[in-house]
Every structure is written in structure tokens, then in C-alpha cells.
Amino acid sequence: MFERFTKDARAVVLGAVDHAERSRAAMVDEEHLLLALLDREAGRAAFALDALGLAEQRGSMERSLAEAHRRGGLSRADAEALSGLGIDLTEIVSRGEEVHGVGALESGREDGKGDGKKKVRGGRWAGHRPFAPGAKQLLAQSLRVALAHRHRHIGDEHLLLALTARPGVAAEVLADHGVTYMAVERVLWGGEGQAKAG
């Protein structure tokens, strides 16, 4: 499928891998793809994000993503569902951090110690970063989005649309900042006659 990606979409995927490596995450996830999209200064997704006023909101988005990681990668919708069962996620995070330190519940660490790398012979570190299941599903959904728009190639705009369409932390953070599927479509194509790919 990667051969169908445009140059801009490939740059986003490679940027996501770089974000995962810098944060020492065990896997590349949807949030890394979002951060890579935010890094871009060129491409259709960058145009849409800029038109929706996201350039000046990056810090706020990064804080929202960090807070979700502190909750173990759970979205607010997940926290509300747990609350409905009588489970207070805020209390769990607080108690876990009292005992094990700040960030104890952060998701995505390969060894639980935060280095995200495996030791190999000779004491060297190897840092291969596979894609998490959610990130793989996002890439597949970007193909469906492209096909729904009758586009032959997957662009960074299709990655952005797929991020907004999938439930989870990345879509929640985007929506909190005014970036929804319909808003992106409206900026890119006027929103007329476009189907949501799911």
C-alpha cells in the first residue's frame, strides 16, 4: 500500500516514526502520526490545518496528547465509560503516580522503563519501531478515504481525514481544536458531495 502514498504522505509516516523514536515509544501510534502532520509546512493537510487555525494551537494539542498518555492512552470517552461503571480514572492515575512516580501509567513504553529500545549483543541498542494496530488501521482507513473521494493516491490530507474519523485520542484532540472530518472536507473541497469513509 505504501507505493500509493504521495511524497507528502510518506513524509508524514516517516515523521511519525521519528516522533516514536524520540519519545522512546515501543510502537508508532496514531498520536505520532498526528504530531508528524502538525510538523508539516507543506501539503494539503498542512493547508487544511492552517486554514482551521491549528498553527497557533500546537502547544495546546501537545498538552492534550500528553495528558491522554498520562491516563494510559485512554480518551475522555473511555474515562467517561469507566466512570459509568464507578471507576474514577483520575483517582487511579493519582494513586499510581503516588506509588510509582509521575507518568507511571503512560502507554506505549516497550519495557515499562521508558527507553523503548531492546538490548542486542555487544550492549548496543536496536530501535525498530513497528506500527501499533490502531496506526495500521489508520493507514488502511486513509486508503478508504482516498477511494471514497475517487483519488488514486493517498495524500497527507487522507491521513488527516482518517485521523478525524477514527475514535480515539487523536480524533478527540483534533475535534477539541475545531478539526473534524467535515471541517477538513469543507476546507479542502468545499464539503459538497463527499462521503465519509469508514
TrEMBL record:
Clp R domain ranges (all copies):
2-198
Q: One Pfam family name from the record?
A: Clp_N
Q: InterPro entries recorded for this chain?
A: Clp_N_dom_sf, Clp_R_N
Tell me the keywords, alphabetical order. Hydrolase, Protease, Repeat
The Gene Ontology terms for molecular function here are: peptidase activity
Q: Name one GO biological process term.
A: proteolysis
Task: List the protein's name.
Answer: Clp protease N-terminal domain-containing protein
UniProt source species: Streptomyces bluensis
